[in-house]
Amino acid sequence: MGAAKRRAVTREDVARLAQVSTAVVSYVINDGPRPVAEDTRARVRWAIDQLGFRPNARARALSLGASFTYGVMVPNVQNMFHAAIVQALEDALAARDLSMLLAHARGAARMEEQTLNDMIGRGVDGVISLMTYTSEIEWMERNLSVPAVLMDRQSPLKGLVTICPDFEEGGFIATEHLISHGARTVVPVFGPMHAGERNSRLIGYQRAMEAAGLPEQKSVITAWSMRGGFEAAQVLLDRGQLPDAVFCFSDMMAVGFLSALSLRGLHAPDDIAVICFDGTDAARYSSPPLSSVTQPVQAMAEAAVAGVLRPKSTDIDHQVFPVSLTVRQSCGCQ
Asked: What does 30-85 look like in DSSP terms, one character per residue?
């Protein structure tokens, strides 16, 4: 016969070992509503650890009117930058004893709407959306019942916390760095922008070219992916004459770009200099390692979690984070 199933540890067991009432155990677990003396609190925590007690999350949520779970929507779970953001958000939530419900919105406004409604229906206490595909007007019309944070949002939105890196400065320093290596023709490579979205990286590129007295080059617009970068390289190669350098607006695109070069027997930076934007491990471990504008992932994730924990407000809360340039071999630095 199989071993008897072990009885689950209860709140009563903890109270008995700690020599307190079950109400005191609840006050310690829920951090209120009544205060508990520090020596008593320590004794309850000791009993919890000794017995391996795990509070029932559903019961706790019902008693406190909160789920302690926050929804996170991402457009592409295969994107390494999105994965880095998700990991940082999960760490920031876990440090506060909070849980994350992750959903893949698949880069479509309709899916984003369905995902958001599903999350709120499941009782999340707030939502963090990375790179929303929904227009500003639609967000305003939603009148959400929970706090929401929009990451990668370049313009403020009343009633929501919006967070983004300094895209324009990143575009400027990336292009300026290529020019400092002697590049005179720098081609920007990026994906389609959402309706009404400002292409700040392109504006930064244009500023740097103008400051150097160089003509802006025709952009290559492709998908925001490794495949998109691969196809962009093929477009440039088929033109018959490579530019001095390319500025890919994401690490993933740059990795695909390098792959296409390699298949043609070409290499960066000898045949063409390459720089990109994001600062993920994809850039660090590519061949050659990619110079990249690095986003402060941890700081932005901390700000997003702090924002979603604040009570819902009608105020504007827009935060722009500084970026930095990490130089490696792909641009010509050794």
From this structure: HT-SS---HHHHHHHHHHHHHHT----HHHHHHHHT---EEEEEES-TT-HHHHHH
pTM of the model: 0.78
Over the stretch 235-271, which tens digit does the pLDDT of each residue have? 999 988 899 999 999 999 999 999 999 999 999 999 9
Enumerate the domain spans of the chain.
11-64, 69-166+297-322, 167-295
Q: 277: which 2 tokens?
A: 């934007």
State the Cα angle at 319 between 220 and 95, rounded to 5°: 105
Tokens describing residue 52: 């391996």
Sheet holding 317-321, edge to edge: 99-104, 69-74, 127-130, 148-151, 161-165, 317-321
Quick check: bond before 269 cis, omega within 30? yes
Question: Would strands 148-151 and 127-130 be described as parallel, antiparallel, or unpaired?
Answer: parallel
Q: Please, what's the b/e burial string for 41-66 (b: 16 or more CB within 10 A of its CB; e: otherwise)?
A: bebbeebbeeeebeeeeeeeeeeeee
**Domain 167-295 in CATH: superfamily?**
Response regulator (3.40.50.2300)
Q: 77 to each of 36, 126, 197, how far by Cα in Å?
A: 43, 20, 22
Helix (H) or strand (E) holding 17: helix 11-18
How far is the C-alpha of 298 from the C-alpha of 307, rounded, in Å?
14
**Six token digits for residue 252:** 């993933």
pLDDT in tens, 40-54: 989 998 988 888 887
Residue type, 315: D
Class of domain 69-166+297-322: alpha beta
CA atoms within 13 A on the CB side of 306: 9
Q: Do domains 11-64 and 69-166+297-322 have the same CATH topology?
A: no
Measure Cα distances from 288 to 43, 46, 171, 295, 329 in Å. Answer: 56, 53, 21, 20, 6
Q: What is the DSSP letter of 301?
A: H
CATH topology of domain 11-64: 434 Repressor (Amino-terminal Domain) (1.10.260)
